[in-house]
Automatic annotation (TrEMBL):
Stored PANTHER family: ALPHA/BETA HYDROLASE DOMAIN-CONTAINING PROTEIN, XAA-PRO DIPEPTIDYL-PEPTIDASE-RELATED
SUPFAM superfamilies: alpha/beta-Hydrolases
The keyword Signal belongs to this UniProt entry's keyword annotation: no
Coiled coil: none
Protein name, UniProt field: Alpha/beta hydrolase family protein
Gene Ontology MF terms in the entry: hydrolase activity
Keywords: Hydrolase
């Protein structure tokens, strides 16, 4: 049998191999570049998403104001129909960059074909509504305690970095109450949000302290000028509890809206005054930030992996270079759906099942997992933190019937 020998490479074969090798290397480089670009793009999007969550910003004027007319019973405003503006109830419209503020009442007419809605104007607190072209919708319908006919005192609470202003509204009993209501507004809101609940607190004999906290535009800003999503803000609520105790309170009830609910939960968990927190009333609270962040990533069509990457940036020490946070945010520690059995403060949760901003499911789950401590009361058609606005009688009835029995004097060894 003839022996097999390998042919010596020719110049032509060598040239062909070299060409194939070049194309292979070029393909690898191109693929790596595309992957790098995609990775960089995903990282940038994740960082942008994370920063938006924790950075205080001005409200977007996304409500169009079409006209102001005079009706049979006063001014009426014609608005572009939006998911918010077509909900019946009492709301408010901020305009002129937030310097204008009007209370908007019932729907007079609604034209789906023209996409307009006409509503009564109950009160214009500031600004010229007739000149308004855009604004934003809100559930905060009063601009001060005086509008409710209530006496109040502007007080200053010592917090990190200075003093935070608060409204102290007495119960009307003629002396400081033994139990105070401390009201904690949500992200992007101010203390006016809590004015809706003051009547309920007064009916129960509570003094009310409507607080401000870091980065809300009234209290001193945090050094990093970033929200802690409750992980840092609770210290300002703890300072408010100290103020209440120093001025006659023996115990407190925490009221919280949206992120204010997350702040209250952290206060009840971490404060050395937690033993004086008699109960909590939480309206559309953030029970689980991971759930809320995933919801917003989906709303903004951000891929799940990118949204998850943004969450990791918030919680990782290295992420602060991209987010601007002074310290990581421990999202696990604020997951009260998982930590449900650890909640030992009686809590009423009011949450609309159509909440477009904070999904209601974790609220319902918290009550299901810890029924001894948590009562869940669903609303419908209220969207985010506007349960009182669509049905104030129901909201106040629920709060009164749930909270009144929990304010009865304690007896036995616990009272000591």
């Amino acid at each position: 049998m003839a022996s097999m020998t390998r042919a010596a490479p020719t110049a032509e074969n060598g040239a062909k191999m070299s060409t194939r090798a070049k194309w292979a290397v070029a393909g690898i480089i191109a693929g790596s570049s595309i992957a790098g670009l995609l990775g960089a793009g995903s990282s940038a999007l994740a960082a942008y998403f994370a920063r938006r969550v924790i950075t205080p910003s001005e409200r977007e004027a996304d409500q169009e104001v079409l006209a102001v007319v005079r009706g049979d019973h006063g001014l009426q405003v014609i608005l572009a129909a939006t998911p918010d503006s077509i909900v019946d109830g009492v709301f408010s419209l901020y305009f002129a960059g937030g310097t204008g503020f009007a209370r908007i009442g019932r729907i007079v007419s609604y034209s789906p074909a023209e996409r307009t809605v006409q509503r009564e104007v109950e009160e214009v607190y500031s600004g010229d509504l007739a000149k308004a072209r855009r604004g934003w919708w809100s559930g905060a319908v009063y601009d001060s305690p005086a509008v409710l006919g209530l006496d109040s005192e502007e007080v200053q609470i010592d917090v990190e970095g200075g003093q935070a202003p608060a409204w102290l509204i007495p119960s009307g009993a003629g002396k400081p109450a033994k139990v105070w209501a401390i009201m904690v507004h949500g992200r992007g809101a101010t203390r006016v949000e809590g004015l809706r609940a003051v009547r309920s607190a007064r009916d129960l004999g509570l003094d009310s302290l409507l607080v401000s906290y870091r980065n809300d535009g009234l209290a001193p800003s945090a050094p990093d000028r970033r929200y802690g999503l409750g992980s840092t803000e609770w210290r300002d609520v703890d300072a408010a509890i100290e103020y209440a105790l120093a001025h006659g309170a023996h115990e407190v009830v925490l009221f919280g809206w949206s992120m204010g609910g997350a702040i209250c939960l952290q206060t009840a968990d971490l404060s050395h005054h937690r033993h004086v927190i008699r109960a909590m009333v939480l309206d559309a609270p953030v029970i689980d930030w991971v759930n809320v962040l995933a919801h917003h990533a989906q709303l903004n069509r951000i891929p799940y992996a990118v949204g998850r990457y943004g969450q990791l940036m918030l919680g990782h020490p290295l992420g602060r270079r991209l987010t601007g946070l002074a310290a990581p945010v421990d999202l696990k520690a604020m997951d009260w759906d998982t930590r449900a059995v650890e909640l030992r403060t009686p809590t009423l949760v009011i949450h609309s099942v159509d909440d477009e901003y904070v999904p209601y499911e974790p609220s319902a789950s918290l009550a299901e997992k810890n029924p001894d401590m948590v009562t869940f009361e669903p609303f419908e058609g209220a969207r985010h933190t506007k349960e009182w606005n669509v049905d104030p009688q129901k909201w106040e009835r629920l709060v009164h019937s749930w909270l009144a029995p929990r304010l009865t004097p304690r007896v036995g060894p616990a009272s000591a």
